[in-house]
Amino acid sequence: MNYLAPEGPVYQAGTLSGNPLAMAAGLAMLSELNTDDKVFKRLAEKTEYLHKGMFKVLNDNGIAHTINRVGSMISVHFAKDEVFDFSTAAKGNNDTFKAFFHGMLSMVST
CATH homologous superfamily of domain 39-109? Predict the structure, then answer.
């Protein structure tokens, strides 16, 4: 914590940054995760399932895409070529991503 401003050189800000309740909740979650050594394996398996499903739907519908996944982290790009940095990500189809993004949001709100 000594590295964070104002004591240190690293500036960090966010909606719940420094909020005692958010910090306590984060600590409780990390403590809980440490009690189950299989939680990350299960999470990665669920992400792999999601990856396969997304790939099939996009492929079956002829939608150019690249899906990057490492463990439980996943990112879909509407680009036919490999995405490995900002420049390659920026070449994706933003209109398709916008439709996907807003479609996902509408699923959450219903």
Answer: Aspartate Aminotransferase, domain 1 (3.90.1150.10)
Check if the beta carbon of residue 82 is closer than 8 Å to that of residue 70: no
Closest CA to 76 of 66, 91, 85: 66
Residue type, 40: F
**Residue 3 CB neighbour total at 10 angstroms:** 9
Share of the chain above pLDDT 90, in %: 65
Q: Is the dihedral of CA 63, 54, 109, 98 positive or negative?
A: negative
Query: What would the pLDDT profile of 72-106 be if each residue is shown by its tens digit?
Result: 999 999 999 999 999 999 999 999 999 999 998 89
Q: Report the predicted TM-score, pTM, of the whole model to 2 decimal places.
A: 0.70
Single-letter amino acid, residue 49: Y
Q: What angle do CA 3, 5, 33 make, to 5 degrees?
A: 60
H or E element, residue 94: helix 94-109
- What would the mean pLDDT of 9-34 be, rounded to a whole number? 85
